[in-house]
Amino acid sequence: MSWISSYFRFPLIWKIAIGFVLGAIVGLLVGPSIAVIRPLGTLFLRLLQMLVVPLIFFTLVVGAASVSPSRLGRVGGKVIVYYLVTSAVAITLGVLIALAVQPGAGLLMPAEAPEARTPPALSQVLLEIVPTNPFQALSRGDVLAVIFFALIVGLSISAMEHAGDRRVKEQAGLLFRLSQGATEVMFRIVRGVLEYAPFGVFALIAVTLGTVGVRALVPLGKLTGVVYGGVALQIVFYVVLLKLFRQGIRRFFSAAQDPMLTAFVTRSSSGTLPVTMRAAERLGISESIYGFSLPLGATVNMDGTALYIGASVIFVANVAGVSLTPAQLVGVIVTGTLASIGTAGVPGAGLIMLSLAITQAGLPMGPVALVAGIDAILDMVRTMCNVTGDLVGTQLVAATEPGLEAEEAQATSVAR
């Protein structure tokens, strides 16, 4: 039918934007009863989440196997340093802005404190990166364990490709091409899922605003302003980094707008991963770079969440009437940066990090109830910041590895 063809030809970003605006209007007009369409949004999230584990596995295998072990070590080092530095900058920014604004001043402690979810110890998080059963990790969606196992497989294929035995090289080439084919299959599924995105976006936004309502932002308007303003400054920081590395700002954000908007409405870094990878392709970034950096970033790079943690800790301290010492503030920054390693890129995971930071600072958990009331609104913008930071880091690392494409071409010809 002609209208179906017209729908598929219409730019995706505009379809998503229309779904977002209509969803906001309908949600505010209808109110809580709009929750009846929640399954439409849940379906979109499930479709995205369906792709996460296989996409992470195959793209990381291809990424790790595409370059020599020494080259991968250099790329990986750059990615990890970038993620740690930008997360530290983000949480520091959140703390400083909140200290200036004092978002929780004048608010009262809630009558009952919510039951806090105890976050796992950092040592336990690090140990669980190594799976005792890789197939169980794949089936359960343990992203960090899947990342570790995929890197081991990819590095082993890379080592096989550089072995002296011709038979081993041929086997490596077969495994490499199989992983490439599986990755292409996943990307084709991604393109199909994205055509449903406008309907999922409509439902997600309508239910969120219909349930929370505009008035829910009033008592926490300052905290919302701090988080949204802090994210805006963090994106300015990204622009400065892109400028320093002489990358085109307009070209970057033209490609990044799809994953940024998808992250905003889905509130899931991991769920947005297929869209982020597609944006990296549009930017001309090598798969051996984005296949490593983006899956890793969706799990360990949480700039927006780190900023939210910094601002929320100050908010909780204001509500509790506690003045944090410089040592406590430094502890919050360090804890928030390290805790991002174990934070899943799924909606609401930031509350686990917040509980950890609150406990570390010695603050009461009661005021967290206030933050939890608008967590969905804050989660939208912080997830968008998370995904943008992942893509910026990938672009910067790619800019410092100009000879990678030639090396890949040579490796592929040898594999064949």
Automatic annotation (TrEMBL):
> What InterPro entries does the database record attribute to this sequence?
Na-dicarboxylate_symporter, Na:dicarbo_symporter_sf
Membrane topology type, per the record?
Multi-pass membrane protein
Q: What is this protein called?
A: Amino acid transporter
Q: Does the keyword Transcription apply?
A: no
| GO CC annotation | plasma membrane
Localized where? Cell membrane
TM regions (residue ranges): 12-37, 43-67, 79-101, 143-160, 196-214, 226-245
Q: Which SUPFAM superfamilies match?
A: Proton glutamate symport protein (SSF118215)
Q: Which GO terms describe its molecular function?
A: symporter activity
Q: Provide one Gene Ontology biological process annotation.
A: dicarboxylic acid transport
Q: Which UniProt keywords apply?
A: Cell membrane, Membrane, Symport, Transmembrane, Transmembrane helix, Transport
